[in-house]
Amino acid sequence: MFTLMGHGIGTDIIIAKAWINIYFSGLEIRYSEILESEITSEIDRLRRAIKMLDKDFEDISASFKNSKTGDFNNLIDSQRLILNDPLLVVETEKRIAESLINAECALVRQLDFIVEQFSKISNLYFQERKVDVEQIVGQLVKKLSLLDQIEKPRKLGSELAGKNETGWICVSDEISINEVSKFIQEGVRGFAIESGSPTSHLATLFKSLEIPAILGLQEHNKLVEHGERVILDSESGVLLVGVDSYILTEYEERIKKGVQKKQKLKVFVGLPCQTKNKVDMSLMANIENPAEAIKAIELGVSGIGLFRTEFLFLEKNKMLSEDEQFEAYKRVIEALNPLPVVIRTLDLGADKLPASFSSKFTKDSNPALGQRGIRLSLENPDFFKIQINAILRASKFGNVKIMLPLITEKEEIIKAKQLIYQSLGNVSDKFCCDLNTPSIGAMIEVPSAAIAIESLIPHIDFASLGTNDLIQYTLAIDRTNNKVSHLYNPGHPAVQFLIENVIKSCIREECPVSICGELANDIRQTRKFFMMGLREVSVNISDILNMKEAISKIEV
Ligand code: PEP
Ligand code: MG
User: Which residues have CB under 8 Å from 469's CB, separation 6+?
Assistant: First the structure.
């Protein structure tokens, strides 16, 4: 038995089979087993992809035939030789037949083998060929996916669903936010991913879905076999591989204890959120979709402190119309009424930009510092107004507040408010209703905003500390980069200084203030801020009851 370590997301333990997911050349390669009866057709699929690629090479060659591009034609010839080399073709076919796997996986396995052989030869020529083979395999994988789109759209991974009652744990080098729900629908109950860090938006999504996960997992390549039983302990961030019956029993016992603990926590649902010395705290929920709003009410929250609306777009992987957004906001607002719902305007950009949006918005080379959050909205006012109209229309069903993400200076708030007021007039006229102006607040998540908070306060009705980004920007650590995630330190004096500055300034100026970043879950941290007068925190649904219990044990 051995363990692979990473950052645990959640508190649950699950025992299930490993579903190995591979990415190659930017494409997801779904590991897929085939039946013996499918060998011939799978080999045929591979051959057709090879033929397609060979034809591309032939066409390119023909178009340059009469030009003086001898070197280029030689290059194309050498690529065609690799493409038709038995070491690639015949051996991949053998892998399909012997391992009963799909063509993509067989290709990548054969590529690994070839690369390994080439790296044993310290000759520059072979080192360069290694890159050529990688490129050819990349192009073949793309052709295979093209074939699938043209011919029958294969439901990759459909064999996953219902095959095993205990489901699967997806083990992958990476995964994008919009793919997660697809895997869950197909029977995946947990994720162990090499990329990502505990404060990445991927982590946020796993928490909101209450799916146990490990991010920043040690390299798993070839260590975990597809279909083998593994244990995912999301509390300690450990993936156990090759477990024996002794370990299995121990973990089954721990699962039972986890269930009992959750059961005990339920007593807090009906209790007010108070400290030991009876100081009331407002415990709000962070949500990403309407379904979570219902869960939040069942847990007895004081309201929604952060509705991350961009996740509605990410889940669907498309732009939502005004009506579609209106329906989603209305569901949340109506369900919570009269409790407050803080709707954050779109915080798209950086790691939250679905592929389908990339043609609309330019891709930044340094996205966390680029067009993200309020910047993207103000640069695209028509797009921003669609969301604002939808929020304002929904606002008549309850208690809504609007929050602006990634504010760095007061001018952004002023511009956003102008657009909101314009929409307010238009929506009121169009729908013949008298709408109240909602409270407008700002996320304080950039050091400039935290330092110059006093210049923002006159323009806002409330402030909420987004500690995930505040820590990322203050300590210069990319929250999506696992290689620097060990530097994430909420206790860093600079971070503490900024949080204190915001809380104290807001209290002095009587501007309501809360914390909605991950740090809010950490009672050792929040206790200090409660002592300063902070009375509101907003946490993920899965942390609500734990937090209520933790607050009940402290004195302020
Ligand atoms: C934050 O930055 O702390 C925050 C709550 O917003 P998000 O995690 O969505 O960036
Ligand atoms: Mg943020």
Answer: 406, 443, 445, 446, 479, 517
CATH number at residue 394: 3.20.20.60
Residue 163 in domain:
no
Question: CA 351 to CA 360: how far, in whole Å?
Answer: 16
Question: Is 12 near ligand 1, meaning CB less than 6 Å away?
Answer: no
Inside any domain, residue 197: yes
Length of the chain: 556
State whether 252 and 308 are in the same domain. no
Q: Are residues 73 and 95 in the same domain?
A: yes
Taking the C-alpha atoms of residue 548 and residue 271, their distance in angstroms, rounded to an integer, is: 9
Mean pLDDT of the chain: 89
- Show which residues are catalytic: 201, 516
Residue identifier of the C-alpha nearest atom 1 of ligand 1? 466
Q: Domain range for residue 258?
A: 2-21+170-263
Pair 458, 512 in one domain? yes
Cβ(516) – ligand 1 distance below 6 Å = yes
464 CA: nearest ligand 1 atom: 5
For every residue of 39-63, DSSP letters joined together read HHHHHHHHHHHHHHHHHHHHHHHHH
Domain edge (last residue) among 207, 234, 263: 263
pLDDT at 216: 92
Number of domains in the chain: 3
CATH of the domain at 223: 3.50.30.10
- Domain annotation covers residue 441: yes
Q: Is 204 in the pocket of ligand 1 (CB under 6 A)?
A: yes
Both 380 and 472 in one domain: the answer is yes
Residue 276 domain flag = yes
Ligand 1 pocket test, candidate residues 516, 526, 540, most atoms within 8 A of CB: 516
Mark whether 311 and 348 lie in a shared domain.
Answer: yes
Give one DSSP letter per residue of 368-414, joined into a string. GGSS-THHHHHHSHHHHHHHHHHHHHHHTTSEEEEEESS--SHHHHH
For residue range 129-164, list pLDDT tens digits in order: 777 888 889 889 888 877 776 665 434 344 444 333
Task: Name the residue at shortest CA distance from atom 10 of ligand 1.
Answer: 469
Q: What is the DSSP string of 105-156?
A: HHHHHHHHHHHHHHHTS--HHHHHHHHHHHHHHHHHHHHHHHHHHHS----T
Q: What pLDDT does 25 receive?
A: 59
Paired residues of 13 in beta bridges = 233
Strand partners, 230: 16, 241
Q: Name 491's Cβ contacts closer than 8 Å, sequence gap at least 6.
A: 525
For ligand 1, atom 8, the nearest C-alpha belongs to 468
pTM score: 0.78
Structure tokens, 512: 């309501």
